[in-house]
Amino acid sequence: MAKDPSKTETATDKRRNKSREEGNVPKGQELGKTTVLLAGLIGLTVYIDVIASELKVIFAWFLSTAPSTVLSPSGVYTLLTDVAGRIAYMTLPVMLFIAFVAFLTQRLQVGPLWTTKVLKPKFDKVLNPLGGLKKLMINPKTVINLTKNLLQAIAIGFAPYLVLKEEINKVGPLFYATTEGIAVYILSTGAKMVIYALVPMLIIAIADTWYTRWDYEENLMMSKDEVKDERKQADGDPKVKAAQRRKMLQAMAERMMQDVPKADVVVTNPTHIAVALQYNPMVAPAPIVLAKGAEHLAQKIKEIARENGVPIRENKPLARALYKSVEIGEAIPEELFQTVAAVLAQLNKFKRPQP
Fold first, then answer.
1. Hey, how many other C-beta atoms are within 10 angstroms of the C-beta on 87?
2. What is the pLDDT of residues 103-162, one digit of tens each?
3. What is the C-alpha separation between 353 and 351, in angstroms, rounded?
């Protein structure tokens, strides 16, 4: 299947996490098989003395005591429990070691992951078997898997041939060997066959793991449009955000206009800027900006001020300074106290009564 030329961008973290949640992870199947076989070989090599000892006990009992043993329900039960215990003692440590290696191999490849989505049945493949068969036949992965399996079959089949060819001259002297010597020879020869087969299998497993990870990354690749869409979803659509901002500014403007009638004075630029101030020593020690605006907002502030009898004073430097440095609801800075006080002193509300 040809790669989509539009997929040129590396997958984002969100794309990777979504893929993991669906159970789609880079996991080489051959590496698990090879490590399990290697673990079994190591486990048997380390534990072979214990297994041999237990087998001697079982065969010694079978050859010496079994013919004269009277079978009864209790005797059969005791025999079965004893044999089952010895078999478990021989096999369980090796099996646990193999299970641990298998778990460790998968954990190192995949990392911590728990999902049930991989168990969800895919009915589209069942309802359309021809489509699935067509994809299978034209998919390059099919050729790769076939080549991989063929190489493994050759390795597994060729390994015994090499070992037997090497050991053929050693079979004759076994006629004079003890039973234990024959057993040791068979086990060592079998281990050599496994090792001969494991070497190419390990090479195939490493190559398969590399290819699996490379193919996984290739399938996760994204187009520029997909990256942009994901950013929009994460950051919010700019059009939606702009609309929300307009609504927010509109609501702020409406609340601001409702406060203009409470102002003591409106300082203007005179046409481009308007700032409404309120001074109430019981509320704040300095005048507060109730509303401010430029262009059409400034005109609206002045219009409401005229309708409600709020004085309007022209002071270009002060209007600009208040508009730039003071936010709505904040008190004016200390450096503007004197200038604002001079404006307020001109108002009848703040003039001292004549004696």
1. 13
2. 998 888 887 776 665 556 555 555 555 555 555 555 677 777 788 888 888 888 888 888
3. 6
Number of helices (H) and strands (E), helices first, in the chain? Answer: 12, 4
Domains of the chain with bracketed CATH: 13-232 (no CATH), 249-350 (3.40.1690.10)
What 3-state DSSP class applies to 26? coil
* Overall pTM surpassing 0.85 (yes/no): no
Q: How far is CA 20 from each of CA 27, 49, 181, 235, 246, rounded to the nearest angstrom?
A: 11, 44, 53, 23, 39
For 332-335, the CB contacts below 8 A with 24+ separation are 332/277, 332/286, 332/287, 332/288, 332/289, 334/286
8 Å CB contact between 347 and 265: yes
Pairing of strands 265-268, 312-314: parallel
Q: Which backbone phi and psi does 170 adopt, to 5 degrees?
A: -95, -5
With H, G, I as helix, E, B as strand and everything else as coil, classify residue 352.
coil
